[in-house]
Structure formats: structure tokens, C-alpha cells
């Protein structure tokens, strides 16, 4: 009456014997083996047979693929259990019992008996005790509750962001891309290099729900300003560079008009201590009448950047003396504008550069 068959290829043997059973099937396998048995199990659903399956796994979370397979089995009347046990899984202590009398299992040198009835009854008892420790898979239905948020939605490149989720009344949750299947409650910390859209999907027997979190990633750029000085001879602005030793320090002559321009491709607020609020793209002109310091501040949700511009002034009489021009003959307010390039203009720039060398040497 009782029969035991041992083989290392128990899946092939189960597929062969499963359609011959008449009353009941108890199977203990891992999730990979269950897929190989799925076609035979679906065929068996039409025979109104008691089917109990214990899936042994080394993890608690379930892939969408295994969830969909279990859903079809449970819908067909199969009792499916999830058993977290690394020892059983690693030792491959898998078996199947048909009609409570026919056992198929792998050879076990630690348990040898010549009495088939004793072994079959022992496996039946073992299977029943396993059901107590395993979690029965239930197909939830109804409305799904899903919370999916990030601790920051605007970050700098390579900055960490934490995703948090809390799902109720679902039997499977996944987050794409980069994460995959997740438990119902959890969090994940990621470093992002570019804009990223995360899609959370939760499903149960009757419905599904999706939640989206978008993270904006900005390059780590410092505040940059272009500074130009108005040349009265050329009647136009000429871009000037700051000191190579003291960045943000410029040499200009007394009373010269300076134009500061910028273009900030980030979300935030820009202001200067004396000027006030400024647009993220724009310029500001001012006449330098004394040594001047400007403090520009750019505020974002995550940080604050400050850029200091310093203008050191020199009297125009020094320039006239350097160019050997009589006083008043080349005053910026009395000079006629011209569109023709002037050697004097480049001489002025050279003079300012020379003067600024003195600044750097201080």
C-alpha cells in the first residue's frame, strides 16, 4: 500500500506521477521547482483534488512572477504556503506525497529505513507541522492603500535620497527602476546622477495602484558671474577677469561703470546684500566710486552658496599719467564715443592688469 521512490530528479518524477493521483497531493519545493510543476498542477485543478503546496524560500519577499503563479493556483482551490527556512532550502529537503501513501523524495543518507509505511507517515507528519510554521498565501481584495514618498525631491548630483513606502491590502509591491520587488513596508537609500522617475506598483486579487515619485537632480555648479567694465573710448563693455591669486577680486578705475551678469539653471532664490532680490538670469550695472564688495547669495532647498565680488579702485589721473595724456583730455565723461578699436583701450586694460598685480602682491 505504501510506496517510496527516491531520485535526485524529483521534479520530473512528480510531473510523471501527479496526474495519476485521485484524492490528494502534498508538495514541498522551492519556487523555481514550482514553475516546472505548474503545467501539471493546472491540469490537476480540473480533477477536484486536495492540493497543498509549501514553497521553501530564503527570502520573505515574493517576486511578481511567483505571485501571479500562486494567484492562479489559489483561484483554482490550491492551498499555498510560504515557508522561510534557509536550512531546508540549502539542503533541498523537498518531497511530494500522493494520496497519503506514495512518497517521492531525494535520497537522504541520514534517514534510511526499510519500512515504507514508517517513512511515508513520517513525511505526512512533517508536512503538517511545516504548515503550522509557514504563512498561508491569501489573495487580498478591495481598495489598496499606498504611501510612497521621498525625503528630498530636489538634489545635487551624487547626493543620497531615501524612498519610503507603506502599502496595505496588497500582496505584491514593486518599484521600478533600480529596485524591483519590495516588502509592503520599507525604505531604500539611493545616490542619483541624473533625473529619475520611480514607479511603485501594488496589486491584489481585484485591483492595482501606481504611485510616482520624481527626483530632480542638478549638477554641482558654483555660482558664476561675468564681469565687464565700460570702456568710454570704445563706447562698449569689455569683459575683465579676476585676479588669478584672489578669485573674485577685480581692479577698476574710480567712477568706472561695471556690468555683472549671470545665468543660473537651478531652482532657488538669488539676492545680494545691498541690491536685494535678483532674477536667476539677468545683469546689474553699477558705477564704482570706491572700493566695493558685493555678496551674492543663492538659496535652494538643500543648501546655500555665497559668492563675493571685490572691486579695487584706481584714480583716472594714474591712467592719464601712464598714457602721458594731459589731465581732462581723456576724461571718461568728456570723450566722444567711437566704434573704432583703440590702442589706448588695450593700454588701459594692460594698465588695470598691472595695477591689479599690485593688489595680488599685497
Instruction: Specify the CATH architecture of the largest domain.
Output: Sandwich
- How far apart the termini lie comes to 105 Å
CATH topology of the largest domain: Immunoglobulin-like
Tell me the major beta sheet. 7 strands, mixed
Individual helix count: 7
CATH class of the largest domain: Mainly Beta
The residue-averaged pLDDT reads 81
Q: Name the CATH superfamily assignment of the largest domain.
A: Immunoglobulins
Form type: rod-shaped
Task: Identify the strand order in the major beta sheet.
Answer: 1-6-5-2-3-4-7
Give a brief rundown of this model.
With 362 residues, the chain is of the alpha+beta class. The chain has three domains: 3-136, Endonuclease Chain A (Endonuclease, Chain A), CATH 3.30.870; 145-218, Immunoglobulin-like; 226-360, Immunoglobulins (Immunoglobulin-like), CATH 2.60.40. The protein has helices at residues 10-17, 31-44, 64-75, 86-91, 116-133, 316-323, 343-360, and strands spanning 3-6, 24-30, 50-57, 79-84, 95-98, 102-105, 135-136, 145-150, 154-156, 159-168, 172-176, 180-182, 185-192, 196-203, 208-218, 226-231, 236-240, 249-253, 257-263, 269-272, 276-278, 281-287, 292-299, 304-314.
Written account of the structure:
Helix content is 23%, strand content 40%. The protein has 362 residues and is of the alpha+beta class. It folds into three domains: 3-136, Endonuclease Chain A (Endonuclease, Chain A, 2-Layer Sandwich); 145-218, Immunoglobulin-like, CATH 2.60.40; 226-360, Immunoglobulin-like (Sandwich). The strands form five sheets. Strands 1-6-5-2-3-4-7 form a seven-stranded mixed beta sheet, sandwiched between helices. A five-stranded mixed beta sheet has the order 9-15-14-11-12, with no helix packed on it. The protein has a five-stranded mixed beta sheet with strand order 18-24-23-20-21. The radius of gyration is 39 Å and the shape is rod-shaped.
